[in-house]
């Protein structure tokens, strides 16, 4: 990112304002495809998840996947779109070897959602032009030179396409938009957002105009951007390229360009096609779909607190640091666990400390998920452990290093593990007082040092008490008892 900004702000680029819009294709998290019952599982052998419908064989009819449709409604609602009472599908005609029907079923005339908005982390609102549903195409593989093969497992996978307005004015805003949108889809459960599995794909359009100019410049679309880093690098490259053209008094052509991952540059793919090139027409095999108020109400009930609102609540109301809030918000399951834990423990700060410092480290070690952790140690169990530490029933160190791992291993409650493994901490003053007296008697020289004001000497005495109590004594109580005893001498 820092590199991209440096380029974008370099040389002639500074005299121009950049105008960016982003299109996202997100795979909807359904078990089956958009118009047939084939599995959407990732990574299976080529062409093992196909049927006459997604192979585009003649004489078959598509049936809309209700869950995919509802996830798309949820997306449109979260992005504050207007949703028409009736929507429908259209055919987008084009010829490509990974598209056996020679058309893609998409939405062109009546989008599922229009005129929405998404608030960035920075607070700026980016308008959402439209949200619509469409099917994915297959995948061409060019692994053997001179020969290409097609895998149609992906053909017919449900996608939601989200097109922003041309509202972004810097690469930092583009990055903020992509991250906010990704987390929004993740928290809604609309998409798994696994970039490495192609769940989330970006296209961006960018134009430049002299600072102060209000008309938009010629727009260049950049495709083949499979990571957010590539989006930012491709845009930085385009800023330089277009600024150089404008400086020379040349025109920027309206076109589509491909990002070349190896050469780290964009290259012309084709001059921009117009919508009429696709010969869109209403899909005759799928009747229009009426979206009732009742259906919308059911979808609204599935809305969740969105990531930026959650981040603000954690850092504001709950007093976490922006860093802690940011880490929690990366994982909606971790957020739900944290909410339950903080409520149970009555201490958000302690809940965040335990999760971020101890639990996540152990999950990383074991390559385990938050869901697996929650099954072994539900929030109420971890809240109990936090409470036992606070009450001095077990030391913080024993709780972290011994009790928590044992809870993950055995699924037993904290109290039982402390009892069975003899990890209880003794906080009873009457039980600890004789040890203090004995230690003071044995170390008359150190006592003198403390009385002369050597504070570190007190630490030595606490250590001796801990040793005498075989590590079971509460160091805080020992410290109190020592201070009291020394004050009396
Ligand atoms: Zn199929
Ligand atoms: Mn599309």
How would you briefly describe this protein structure?
With 489 residues, the protein is of the alpha+beta class.
**Percentage of helical residues?**
40-55%
Shape estimate:
elongated
Pairing-aware structural class of the strands and helices? Answer: alpha+beta
Number of alpha- plus pi-helical segments: 17
The whole-angstrom Rg is 31 Å
Strand content: 15-25%
User: How many individual β-strands?
Assistant: 15
Question: Any overview of this molecule?
Answer:
It is a single chain. The model is unreliable at 1-8 (pLDDT under 50). It contains 17 helices and 15 strands. Strands 5-6-9-1-10-11-12-13 form an eight-stranded mixed sheet. Strands 4-3-14 form a three-stranded antiparallel sheet, with no helix packed on it. It has helices spanning 2-8, 66-78, 171-188, 228-247, 293-300, 307-315, 322-329, 332-345, 348-366, 370-376, 379-390, 396-410, 414-420, 429-442, 444-451, 455-468, 475-488; strands at residues 16-27, 86-87, 90-93, 103-106, 113-119, 125-135, 139-144, 147-151, 158-164, 200-210, 220-225, 255-260, 265-271, 281-282, 289-290. The chain is α+β, with helices and mostly antiparallel strands and 489 residues long. It is elongated and about 95 Å long. The structure holds zinc ion and manganese (II) ion. The site of manganese (II) ion (MN) has 3 residues, from loops.
Task: Note the main attributes of this structure.
single chain, 489 residues, alpha+beta, eight-stranded mixed sheet, three-stranded antiparallel sheet, 15 strands, disordered N terminus, binds zinc ion, binds manganese (II) ion
């Amino acid at each position: 990112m820092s590199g991209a900004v440096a380029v974008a702000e370099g040389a002639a680029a500074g005299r121009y304002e950049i105008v960016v819009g982003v299109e996202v294709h997100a795979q909807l998290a359904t078990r089956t495809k958009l118009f047939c019952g084939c599995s959407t599982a990732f990574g299976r052998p080529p062409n093992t998840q196909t049927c006459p419908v997604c192979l585009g064989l003649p004489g078959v009819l598509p049936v809309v996947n209700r869950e995919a449709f509802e996830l798309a409604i949820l997306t449109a609602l979260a992005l504050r779109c207007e949703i028409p009472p009736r929507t429908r599908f259209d055919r987008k005609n084009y010829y490509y070897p990974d598209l056996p029907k020679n058309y893609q079923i998409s939405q062109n005339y009546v989008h599922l959602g229009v005129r929405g908005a998404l608030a960035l982390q920075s607070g700026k609102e980016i308008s959402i032009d439209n949200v619509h549903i469409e099917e994915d195409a297959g995948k061409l593989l060019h692994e053997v030179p001179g020969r290409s093969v097609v895998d149609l497992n992906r053909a017919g996978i449900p996608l939601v396409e989200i097109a922003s307005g041309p509202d972004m004015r810097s690469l930092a805003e583009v990055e903020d938009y992509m991250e906010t949108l990704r987390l929004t889809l993740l928290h809604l459960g609309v998409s798994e957002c696994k970039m490495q599995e192609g769940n989330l794909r970006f296209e961006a359009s960018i134009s430049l105009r002299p600072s102060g100019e209000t008309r938009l410049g010629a727009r260049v679309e950049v495709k083949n951007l499979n990571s957010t880093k590539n989006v930012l690098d491709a845009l930085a490259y385009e800023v330089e390229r277009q600024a150089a053209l404008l400086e020379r008094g040349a025109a920027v052509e309206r076109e589509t360009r491909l990002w070349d991952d190896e050469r780290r540059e964009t290259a012309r793919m084709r001059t921009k096609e117009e919508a009429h090139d696709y010969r869109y027409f209403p899909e005759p095999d799928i009747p229009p779909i009426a979206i009732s108020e009742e259906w919308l109400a059911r979808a609204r009930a599935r809305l969740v607190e969105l990531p930026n609102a959650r981040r603000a609540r954690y850092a504001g109301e709950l007093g976490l640091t922006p860093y802690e809030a940011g880490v929690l918000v990366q994982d909606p399951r971790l957020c739900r666990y944290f909410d339950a834990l903080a409520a149970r423990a009555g201490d958000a700060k302690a809940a965040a400390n335990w999760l971020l410092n101890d639990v996540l480290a152990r999950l990383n070690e074991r390559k385990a998920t938050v869901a697996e952790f929650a099954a072994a140690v539900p929030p109420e169990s971890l809240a109990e452990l936090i409470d036992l530490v606070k009450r001095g029933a077990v030391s913080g160190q024993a709780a972290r290093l011994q009790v928590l791992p044992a809870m993950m291993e055995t699924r037993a409650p904290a109290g039982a593990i402390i009892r069975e493994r003899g990890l209880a901490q003794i906080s009873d003053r009457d039980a600890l007082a004789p040890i203090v007296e004995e230690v003071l008697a044995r170390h008359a020289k150190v006592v003198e040092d403390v009385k002369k004001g050597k504070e570190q000497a007190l630490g030595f005495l606490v250590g001796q008490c801990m040793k005498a109590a075989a590590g079971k004594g509460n160091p805080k109580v020992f410290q109190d008892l020592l201070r009291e005893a020394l004050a009396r001498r």
